[in-house]
Specification:
This protein folds into 2 domains: about 190 residues, 3-Layer(aba) Sandwich (Rossmann fold); about 210 residues, FAD/NAD(P)-binding domain (3-Layer(bba) Sandwich), CATH 3.50.50.60. By secondary structure, it is of the alpha/beta class. Helix 16 packs across helix 17. The radius of gyration is 24 Å and the shape is globular. The strands form 4 sheets. The chain has a 7-stranded mixed sheet, with helices on both faces. Strands 6-14-7-8-10-9 form a 6-stranded parallel sheet. It starts with a strand and ends in a 15-residue tail after the last helix. Flavin-adenine dinucleotide binds next to helix 1 and helix 7.
């Protein structure tokens, strides 16, 4: 067997497994630093989007292949180095994602009450690294900076009531905080115009369907400059967004408890406040002839006691791999890692760490296939790993006291989450803390159904 280690069990890692196992002579170990698989499908996608979350069912099928082992709760770089992995695997594919947020780079960004959307998303999705008490939502008014789908998720979840979300798997402590939320106004702030917004029409439309909130758009901010007109003419999705926004601009608010203000052409220049956030200062912007955003000098202050920035993600360097600080990705040629002296033998990347944080879940499929094609093309010339015993790497981890969560462990976590959900009347509820996840994983043997007439596993 050709032995491959994959670092990261998000969509990119799992789609790579799918492409590799098609061959029939490849054994794959998938490492993840979390006890659970699926990366941002579990910890990014919003809980009120069950259809998108259900992609995990297809990913499950891939990881249940007999030639695949899942090894969760193993941080590559901390628990075992890439150099060590090379003793056990003929090739290594890193699909570690882009885990940290980009900063606004304005004064006041670190005041209490100013957060990244990454922190908020991690908290409401019950990520084991997110402290349970990270958020209180005492703010009356929240400014969300950014005009992408993640910003839309954050705005939507702040606008909904806890009752709207109770049937999801949102953790109890999050529902309890949202139940006590004081929020009345949510300002979604973008530094460019509506034609440049990154959200998709389906996600945008959903904001207008929230029973608890009115959407407010200033017609003047929808006026189009020549650059925007051109975008509209060439991009049907942009036109659809504009149609939705124009429809809202003509609506009268109907007095719902919460208001969503969509604010275009506003560049954040300062998070104001004395220790705590008291507002977001913005400068009105426009495009210059070259299409660059420039300030007009008109300054506003948006009333806000909480600021959430959602202006993109950055990959983190992976110890042992080259890293391009400018793009926050690993330099590569069709997935082959490229160091200063050329391609690094046997090392590959896929997903966000390869191409940056763009695209939807499905984009990673094509991306991972490209990398696997490169790997399989190289395979005949790669030096075989010196250690061929598949148990050896497990023994090394055990020796170091690393509790690796295998597939049975993950199934035990799933079962425990279903049981937890049943206690509160939802299909499932998240277990959030790492210790509790590990406990659930270790709880034991998964009930196995024996196929009729078979001898059992
Ligand atoms: C908040 C948010 C919401 C989103 N919602 C949607 C949506 O609704 N629909 C959609 O199509 N797309 C959505 N996306 C985009 C989608 O999630 C990404 O395209 C996709 O997850 C990227 O896949 P990836 O495998 O590169 O990274 P990830 O999904 O981030 O997976 C990386 C994995 O690597 C693991 N890892 C990292 N470092 C290590 C290490 N040192 N050792 C071991 N394991 C490690 C991580 O734990 C993680 O499991 C969303 C993104 C975000 C941020």
């Amino acid at each position: 067997m050709f032995r491959v280690a994959i670092v990261g069990s998000g969509p990119a890692g799992v789609y790579a497994v799918e492409a590799l196992t098609r061959r029939g002579d490849v054994a794959v170990d998938v490492f993840d630093r979390l006890p659970s698989p699926f990366g941002l499908v579990r910890y990014g996608v919003a809980p009120d989007h069950p259809k998108i979350r259900s992609i995990s069912a297809a990913l499950t099928g891939v990881l249940e292949h007999p030639d695949v082992r899942f090894l969760g709760n193993v941080d590559v770089g901390r628990d075992i180095s890439l150099a060590e992995l090379r003793s056990y695997y003929d090739a290594i594919l890193v699909a570690s994602g882009a885990a940290v947020d980009r900063r606004l780079g304005v004064p006041g960004e670190d005041l209490a009450g100013s957060f990244s959307a990454t922190e908020f998303v991690a908290w409401y999705n019950g990520h084991p690294d997110a402290p349970i008490d990270a958020f209180t939502v005492d703010a009356r008014s929240v400014a969300v900076v950014g005009m992408g789908n993640v910003a839309v998720d954050v705005v939507r979840l702040l606008a909904k009531t806890a009752d709207d979300l109770r049937s999801t798997d949102m953790p109890d402590h999050v529902l309890a905080v949202l139940e006590r939320s004081h929020v009345t106004d949510i300002h979604m702030v973008g530094r460019r115009g509506p034609a440049h917004a990154k959200f998709t029409t389906r996600e945008l439309r959903e904001l207008g369907e929230i029973a608890n909130a009115d959407v407010l758009v200033d017609e003047a901010e929808l006026e189009l400059d020549p650059v925007s007109e051109q975008l509209l003419a060439t991009q049907p999705a942009t036109r659809r967004n504009l149609d939705v926004l124009r429809g809202w601009a003509t609506r009268q608010p109907s007095g719902r408890p919460r208001r969503l203000h969509l604010r275009f052409w506003q560049r954040p220049v300062e998070v104001v406040g004395d220790r705590r956030v008291a507002g977001l200062r913005t400068e009105h912007t426009q495009l210059d002839e070259a299409g660059n955003v420039v300030g007009t000098g008109h300054i506003f202050t948006i009333d806000a006691q909480m600021v959430l920035r959602s202006v993109g993600y950055r990959g983190l360097p992976v110890p042992g791999l080259p890293f391009d600080e400018r793009t926050a990705t690993v330099p590569n040629d069709e997935g082959r890692v490229v160091g200063t002296k050329g391609p690094e033998t046997g090392l590959y990347v896929a997903g966000w760490i390869k191409r940056g944080p763009t695209g939807v879940i499905g984009t990673n499929k094509h991306d991972a296939r490209q990398t696997v094609a490169s790997m399989l093309e190289d395979a005949p010339n790669l030096p075989p790993a010196p250690v061929r015993d598949p148990e050896a790497v497990l023994a090394l981890l055990a020796e170091r006291g690393v509790v690796a969560v295998d597939w049975a462990g993950w199934l035990a976590i799933e079962l425990a989450e279903v049981e937890l959900g049943q206690q509160r009347g939802s299909a499932r509820a998240r277990i959030t803390q790492r210790d509790a996840l590990l406990q659930a994983a270790m709880r034991g043997v998964i009930p196995q159904t024996t196929p009729a007439g078979g001898d059992g596993p």
